[in-house]
Design goal:
Largest sheet: 9 strands, mixed
Radius of gyration: 24 Å
Oligomer: single chain
Number of domains: 2
Helix content: 25-40%
Strand content: 5-15%
Distance between the termini: 46 Å
Number of strands: 9
Number of helices: 13
């Protein structure tokens, strides 16, 4: 753009000419040199926009077309501002947060071209199974798929490091936290986790039904919905000690703590073990009242720092994140491997796409965001499992959505 302006300008105008002819419009003027001051990228989530922006910064600093007093990065919200500030600092770019906010779209081509994680979306028929049994079976299937990924990751850590694959993370995102007419999405998931730790016999029974192909839930071909989904578990048999240790840090009493040093955070743990999960919500008071209705008391923790901020740290004990749509913006991690979308209704497509884009981010071998051709363990670790058709009651969404 600096050394070959006439050639670049000619190419732009040739492109514009063809575009105007192809779309039968004549509203745009030809580009001039004054227009060569802006650059725009339309790219899928996870395809490297942030890195390109950092490269543009260094290009600008090298060529010194002019010397501005400041360079402003404008983001949609404070969460994204904090995220970009962290990323800029990692790239050695000096920056600071402005006091107030003064720069994501996924697309099909990104996936079809082989970029980002592969994904599966659970698609089952409830059939004659009751609503509560349906919810429990879906939740248990989600647990087993996450546990299987943990097993694969721990058994193949050198391979995972070679492909820049991080420890799997299980997330749930709901649309409500303190619903009135229906149970809160987040509260119900917390209650499920409590039961997992309080009732091991129930866990074993439900898990065995799924692993034996007797879940009672059917796929579109009328076969068992989870047939051949857990070959790494069934190959050696389900080890309950392993499940509790790897997912929850062990057996014991389910406890939930309000992290008073972090707004809206609650930690999930077993006994005195490290926290295995974090709940992030907006209305703390209402959430605690809903917990009490379930017979769950939240204990204060005035010592621990933010658990949410520690997710990306090496060796983090956090395995599970539960929260509302705050997760859609203002955070990023390479770890997401299993995703439960709860009570998602119509009109929420853009938010789902945004969240999906964050889930399929892939660092990749040699830092290539393309999926590998590996058919073994890497294939499973480069996979995002989506449990969409609601772990909870489906409201406002067509059955075939």
């Amino acid at each position: 753009m600096k050394n070959r302006k006439p050639e670049f300008l000619h190419d732009l105008n040739e492109f514009l000419k063809a575009y105007k002819q192809g779309h039968d419009i004549d509203l745009l003027d030809e580009f001039t040199e004054d227009d060569l001051r802006k650059i725009a990228f339309w790219m899928a989530t996870g395809s490297g926009k942030t890195l390109l922006m950092h490269i543009n910064y260094h290009q600008f600093q090298r060529y010194k077309l002019f010397s501005p007093d400041n360079i402003l990065l404008i983001t949609p919200n404070e969460g994204l501002s904090r995220q970009h500030c962290e990323e800029l600092q990692k790239s050695g770019i000096p920056c600071r947060l402005y006091a107030g906010n003064i720069g994501d779209t996924g697309n099909l081509y990104f996936y079809l071209d082989g970029y980002g994680k592969d994904f599966t979306v659970l698609n089952v028929k409830q059939g004659g199974v009751g609503e509560q049994a349906f919810q429990e079976m879906i939740f248990m299937a989600n647990l087993l798929s996450y546990f299987q990924q943990l097993l694969i990751y721990e058994q193949h850590q050198p391979l995972a490091r070679q492909y820049n694959l991080e420890k799997p993370l299980w997330i749930f995102v709901g649309t409500t936290v303190t619903g009135r007419e229906e149970e809160s999405d987040v509260i119900q998931i917390v209650a499920f986790f409590k039961r997992l730790l309080d009732d091991e016999e129930w866990v074993r029974t439900k898990a065995d039904e799924i692993l034996r192909g007797n879940s009672g839930l059917k796929d579109e071909n009328e076969g068992d919905a989870f047939s051949d989904s857990y070959e790494f578990i069934t190959g050696s048999g389900l080890n309950m000690d392993d499940l509790y240790k790897k997912v929850f840090g062990g057996r014991g009493q389910f406890r939930i703590h309000e992290i008073t040093n972090a707004d809206g955070e609650f930690g999930l743990r077993v006994g005195q073990n490290d926290y295995f999960g974090v709940v992030n919500i907006g209305d703390v008071s209402a959430f605690k009242k809903e917990l009490e209705k379930k017979g769950i008391s939240a204990e204060p923790d005035a010592v621990s720092p933010s658990l949410f901020d520690a997710i990306k740290k090496e060796g983090s004990s956090i395995q599970v994140i539960i929260g509302s749509k705050k997760f859609i913006e203002g955070w990023d991690t390479w770890r997401v491997s299993s995703m439960g979308l709860l009570n998602i209704g119509t009109g929420q497509g853009p938010q789902i796409i945004q969240l999906f884009g964050r889930g399929v981010r892939l660092k990749g071998k040699d830092y290539s965001p393309k999926r590998s051709a590996d058919k073994g363990p890497v294939k499973y670790l480069e996979m995002l499992h989506i449990y969409f058709k609601a772990l909870l009651r489906r409201r406002g969404a067509p059955k075939n959505q």
